Amino acid sequence: NAGVTQTPKFQVLKTGQSMTLQCAQDMNHEYMSWYRQDPGMGLRLIHYSVGAGITDQGEVPNGYNVSRSTTEDFPLRLLSAAPSQTSVYFCASSLDMRANVLTFGAGSRLTVL
Amino acid sequence: DQQVKQNSPSLSVQEGRISILNCDYTNSMFDYFLWYKKYPAEGPTFLISISSIKDKNEDGRFTVFLNKSAKHLSLHIVPSQPGDSAVYFCAATTSIKAAGNKLTFGGGTRVLVKP
Fold this sequence. Notes:
The structure holds 2 protein chains of 2 kinds.
Chain A: E1 4-7, E2 10-13, E3 19-25, E4 31-38, E5 42-51, E6 54-57, E7 64-66, E8 76-78, E9 87-94, E10 103-104, E11 108-112
Chain B: E1 4-5, E2 10-14, E3 19-25, E4 32-38, E5 45-51, E6 56-59, E7 62-67, E8 72-77, E9 86-93, E10 104-105, E11 109-114
Parallel strand pairs in B: 2-11
Antiparallel strand pairs in B: 1-3, 3-8, 4-5, 4-9, 6-7, 7-8, 9-10, 9-11
């Protein structure tokens, strides 16, 4: 049971480049979300999804897009990377909206030059 | 404006002693609180939680206390072990599910347990 898998683990981008952070879970979880972790600020919610075809914005959605075409996958897209998006990104999932405990992936460290 | 704050960014404690981590929140709608533990290069893992209908929850060496009137919770680790050295995040959420399953996290406290 792999849990929540994130790829890549590390990525360096130049300002203006685009990329997609991948997230997949094999636990048949309905709820998936993306957080970013910055020093001293904890984890902040970017986008979340309560099921396939349904997404919504979190606390810091600007500069990021998401889609949820399957239950298993929830990719995070940066269309035009900016240095302010340098961060560690975590994907998390839970069984459904009523489950408060999230299972996190190992993280993707992104540096934008 | 951070709704969940952990005012101590770091804590150093001797092995075998008690570690006390504190967390304050401002949003009175929060009614469920969680602690996560994070090792370097890994994702956070769930440690313990407490509902607002309780003021204490215990799981082995870990106990979480909730003081609703003060909007304050704390995590006690007794006795502390070197393997407890990690970053601990406090998180809060509301059972109003129209808001979605969102956790609001504090900034984290780095704990170092010295042998």
